[in-house]
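Folds abound. A case:
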Amino acid sequence: MKSVANGVVAQKPQHFFLQRYADAYRNELATLIEALAKGEGQYPGGNDGLQALLLADAALESLKTGKPVAPQSLL
């Protein structure tokens, strides 16, 4: 990123999400392996999946209605 007279300029993000988020996926996998090696239980757990589903459902409902939707309101 660099600043120029009319704003801030940055490179375009990489096209494919796996390229854009490769470091995040590596870090998440390393955290999972470390947790399993230490016997720290299940990671991620069922509640993590539920929260992801609620977030996706709220996003879809918001898209359909054009209004904000809180994920918790879908329980």
